[in-house]
């Protein structure tokens, strides 16, 4: 374990706050937050993307009928072919992908490709009908930048890329087939304007979504995290314990709990000062965080210099070894002040494991771990005491009168 240099910054720095301070004009966070943002966006984007695809399919099918009814067959058979053989199937494939959970990782590239194919296909319809002398109105292409930027849920850069490809096709091909210079000028101007406005709106939308993500993340951290150490606070610990207790009751598993108290911490503070005391608590919390490995495990600051570790469904015969590893890792912390090594700190740990099916109240687990911690302290500190599946009679503090 690397040495911890004391004193260091004594408040936990939230990644959400840091990202807020840095700003996100480039619409990009660091890798961990970026992944969290995309994850949080996924379900909303999925719903929007599906709605847009269904509406797109209905619209393009309706325009097949409108084309056939309103423009000469020499052009309408081609425009209908593009709609029926290219655009609608692409939208159907994208929808099919969106309904398969296994396709989650490929959904964004698929939506990007779909948007690009639909954009280019729509421009193709305009170009082809102009070339065949029976032009369909081009106004539909003006909707594309707005739909792609505002409704598909694509990351802004990808929406921009997709729109630019269709715009480039429009700017290169329409002048070749549009005989009327005045109409051409209007068409090009409106297409450019629609792209600028769509990109602007898309940028503002994503910028705001990122700001809300950071605010929500910061608020939930303030509610759930301890301000000094950054690990979970007591409220979050209580909620989590109740949750895993219910889950273990359903699944017939165990819940393990370690209450860990720093030994003689008052002396530590008195000798080295509160600033270094705070930093030592952070170092302890870092170690505990590394011992909450599984998804349902949790490390929390229980209060003052006392910490808690919830282990979901541990092997009861492993608990002593697990507690010992925590104790040893904390004892091995190399705490350094600016110029010298600081007294090592030790902890006492009371560990308990119960099966919720046997004992309905999660408070009994807390009580059992508390009794074990009491025994560890009174047994001389710097040690681990385990109470594994204690009988109700054992859930009594030493000194409690027997009624
Ligand atoms: N620096 C710092 N000290 C804290 C914090 N919270 C609690 N403490 C200190 O932790 C010390 C706990 O003292 P005691 O409860 O007497 O326990 P102890 O000295 O650790 O002794 P034992 O637990 O019996 O081994 C007190 O001096 C508190 O001020 C904190 O956030 N920062």
Automatic annotation (TrEMBL):
Entry keywords, A to Z: Membrane, Transmembrane, Transmembrane helix
E.C. number(s) listed in UniProt: 2.7.7.65
Residue ranges constituting the GGDEF domain according to the UniProt record: 253-389
Record keyword Cell membrane present: no
InterPro entries in UniProt: Diguanylate_Cyclase, GGDEF_dom, Nucleotide_cyclase, Rev_trsase/Diguanyl_cyclase
Cofactor annotation: Mg(2+)
Biological processes, Gene Ontology terms: cell adhesion involved in single-species biofilm formation; negative regulation of bacterial-type flagellum-dependent cell motility
Pfam families in UniProt: GGDEF (PF00990)
Cited Gene3D superfamilies: 3.30.70.270
Domain of life: Bacteria
Enzyme class: transferase
PANTHER family attached to this UniProt entry: DIGUANYLATE CYCLASE DGCM-RELATED (PTHR45138:SF9), REGULATORY COMPONENTS OF SENSORY TRANSDUCTION SYSTEM (PTHR45138)
Official protein name in the record: diguanylate cyclase
């Amino acid at each position: 374990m690397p040495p911890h240099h004391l004193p260091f910054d004594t408040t936990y720095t939230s990644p959400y706050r840091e990202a807020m301070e840095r700003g996100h004009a480039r619409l990009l966070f660091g890798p961990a937050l970026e992944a969290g943002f995309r994850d949080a966006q996924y379900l909303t984007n999925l719903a929007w993307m599906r709605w847009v695809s269904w509406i797109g399919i209905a619209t393009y099918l309706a325009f097949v009928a409108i084309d056939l009814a309103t423009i000469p067959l020499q052009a309408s058979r081609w425009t209908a072919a593009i709609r029926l053989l290219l655009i609608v199937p692409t939208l159907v494939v994208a929808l099919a992908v969106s309904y398969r959970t296994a396709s989650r990782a490929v959904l964004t590239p698929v939506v990007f490709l779909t948007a690009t194919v639909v954009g280019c296909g729509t421009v193709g319809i305009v170009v082809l009908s102009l070339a065949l002398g029976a032009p369909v109105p081009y106004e539909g292409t003006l909707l594309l930048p707005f739909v792609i930027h505002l409704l598909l849920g694509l990351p802004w850069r990808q929406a921009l890329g997709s729109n630019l490809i269709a715009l480039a096709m429009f700017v290169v091909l329409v002048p070749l087939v549009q005989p009327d210079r005045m109409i051409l000028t209007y068409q090009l101007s409106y297409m450019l304007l629609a792209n600028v406005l769509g990109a602007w709106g898309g940028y503002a939308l994503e910028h705001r979504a990122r700001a809300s993500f950071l605010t929500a993340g910061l608020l939930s951290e303030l509610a759930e995290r301890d301000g000094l150490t950054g690990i979970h606070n007591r409220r979050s610990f209580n909620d989590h314990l109740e949750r895993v207790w219910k889950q273990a009751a359903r699944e017939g598993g165990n819940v393990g709990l370690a209450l860990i108290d720093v030994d003689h911490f008052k002396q530590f503070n008195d000798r080295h000062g509160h600033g270094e005391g705070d930093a030592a608590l952070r170092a302890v919390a870092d170690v505990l965080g590394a011992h909450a490995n599984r998804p349902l495990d949790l490390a929390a600051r229980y209060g003052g210099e006392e910490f808690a570790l919830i282990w979901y469904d541990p092997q009861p015969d492993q608990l002593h070894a697990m507690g010992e590893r925590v104790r040893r890792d904390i004892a091995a912390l190399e705490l350094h002040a600016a110029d010298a090594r600081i007294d090592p700190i030790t902890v006492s740990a009371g560990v308990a494991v119960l099966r919720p099916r046997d004992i309905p109240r999660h408070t009994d687990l807390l009580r059992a771990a508390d009794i074990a911690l009491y025994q560890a302290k009174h047994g001389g500190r710097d040690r681990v005491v385990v109470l594994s599946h204690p009988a109700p009679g054992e859930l009594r503090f030493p000194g409690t009168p027997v009624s």
